[in-house]
């Protein structure tokens, strides 16, 4: 079957939302401007060997100074919402010390939010997108439950009270699995802690509690007056059996999904606790290793009640898929972050949405990222156009044919920007940025106009419509 045969000409439901995303550390720059404190990524970049091209994000696409240009681009793109993250250290530069709120930081986000509302675009704010204030890390970061939970609540409280009159969509944490596995497991992302398994599970455990605390804070103190939604944004590959007729491969696929999605989604969307298959597997391995207790920490009954039901949507970032087979992989956690492994598998977006629907009782899914990188950043980007076309079409099939409950789609990312350990060697933007000029000139790519048309058409209407 060729692509045209299987292509679905149809439109999304009328209330479907379209967006584009960025994150503070990746695009703001201005790391020393306006009283901003230091984040773990500033520190991580000080060692050039941590970043492929030995770069840093001190300036990057300079959205701290150029946000008005970004707003013009966002308007031209025609999205319903703009997903950006707040730099925690810009709002509270020293959370474990003075804890003072930085008014210049608040002003920056007020300007951005007001600018978006003036063009009719809703702000969707991520509270945490990988950039922990350094002073929290100095006290153990995600491994220190009381400091993390306490500081995250205080920071969220400031954001809700300063911005919540205008912000109606909040994300607590972006990609908790990556925060735990890459930040505290193999150490390939900031803060670069290498504590495979013990650190990983503890960081994730504390993160889930911090998430639930902030959801309850919003639910209890702000929801009535501000009337918004608050959720967490997960990510995982979609896994498929290498041999669909091999029961072991099929079983391994389930294990992989539970270890990478269920780890967070099962406690939050099902019963406040980790997936049974995950608990059993880790307990089994811990025993073989001669440990008295499982490496996976336990929630108390009270904590389970507190965690269950704490997300208004299931936020999801989809990039790629994997074939799983037992002899190839008896290690189901997915802690590899090379972009060279971002195979383009559009069917995976449909596959994962169906898995989420079946596993979590038709939960409403908010797609918070999906995008394509190249190394050139050229304005003529047919591969990215093809990526968006095929993925959005598979998403349409998930919604229209399979009945998946998807409320929104978000393209990653508005601008070429700092791609973490890959620096500027990977470009995901719909808009190219000339990093060699002081102006950081922005030029929309062909994919920008393609996505804009999809939004305008609300999908791919049949020619006769
Ligand atoms: C997901 C992360 O949220 C984002 O920061 C990153 O740039 C993209 N993946 C692409 O790697």
TrEMBL record:
GO terms for biological process: carbohydrate metabolic process. Keywords: Glycoprotein, Glycosidase, Hydrolase. Signal peptide: none annotated. The keyword Protein biosynthesis does not apply. GO terms for molecular function: beta-glucosidase activity. The keyword Glycoprotein applies. Homodimer. Belongs to the glycosyl hydrolase 1 family. This is Beta-glucosidase.
């Amino acid at each position: 079957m060729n692509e045209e045969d299987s292509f679905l000409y149809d439109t999304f439901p009328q209330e479907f939302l379209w967006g584009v995303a960025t994150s503070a550390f990746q695009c703001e720059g201005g790391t020393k401007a306006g009283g901003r404190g230091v984040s773990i990524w500033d520190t991580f970049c000080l060692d050039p060997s941590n970043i492929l091209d030995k770069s840093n994000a001190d300036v990057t696409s300079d959205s701290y100074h150029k946000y008005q240009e970004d707003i013009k681009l966002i308007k031209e793109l025609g999205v319903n919402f703009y997903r950006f993250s707040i730099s925690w250290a810009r709002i509270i530069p020293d959370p474990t010390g003075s804890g003072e709120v930085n008014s210049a930081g608040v002003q920056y986000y007020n300007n951005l939010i007001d600018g978006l509302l003036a063009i009719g675009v809703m702000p969707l704010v991520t509270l945490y997108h990988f950039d922990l204030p350094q002073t929290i890390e100095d006290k153990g970061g995600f491994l220190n439950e009381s400091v993390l939970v306490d500081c995250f609540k205080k920071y969220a409280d400031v954001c809700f009270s300063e911005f919540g009159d205008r912000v109606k969509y909040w994300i607590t944490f972006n990609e908790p699995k990556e925060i735990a596995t890459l930040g505290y497991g193999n150490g390939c992302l900031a803060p670069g802690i290498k504590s495979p398994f013990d650190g990983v599970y503890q960081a994730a455990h504390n993160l889930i509690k911090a998430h639930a605390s902030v959801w309850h804070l919003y639910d209890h103190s702000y929801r009535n007056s501000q009337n918004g939604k608050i959720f967490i944004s997960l990510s995982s590959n979609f896994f498929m059996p290498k041999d669909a007729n091999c029961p072991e491969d099929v079983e391994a696929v389930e294990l992989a999904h539970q270890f990478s999605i269920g780890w967070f989604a099962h406690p939050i969307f099902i019963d406040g606790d980790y997936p049974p298959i995950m608990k059993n597997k880790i307990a089994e391995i811990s025993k073989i290793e001669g440990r008295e207790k499982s490496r996976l920490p336990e929630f108390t009954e009270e904590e389970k009640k507190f965690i269950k039901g704490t997300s208004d949507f299931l936020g999801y970032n989809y990039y790629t898929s994997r074939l799983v087979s037992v002899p190839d992989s008896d290690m189901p956690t997915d802690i590899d972050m090379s972009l060279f492994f971002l195979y383009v598998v559009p069917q995976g977006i449909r596959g994962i949405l169906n898995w989420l629907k079946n596993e979590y009782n038709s939960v409403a899914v908010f797609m918070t990222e999906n995008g394509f990188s190249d190394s050139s950043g050229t304005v003529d980007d047919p591969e990215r156009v093809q990526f968006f076309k095929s993925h959005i079409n598979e998403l349409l099939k998930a919604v229209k044919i399979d009945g998946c409950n998807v409320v929104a789609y978000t393209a990653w990312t508005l601008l070429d920007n700092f791609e973490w350990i890959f620096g500027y060697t990977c470009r995901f933007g719909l808009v190219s940025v000339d990093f060699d000029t002081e102006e950081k000139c922005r030029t929309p790519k062909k994919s920008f106009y393609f996505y804009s048309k999809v939004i305008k058409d609300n999908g791919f209407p049949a020619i006769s419509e």
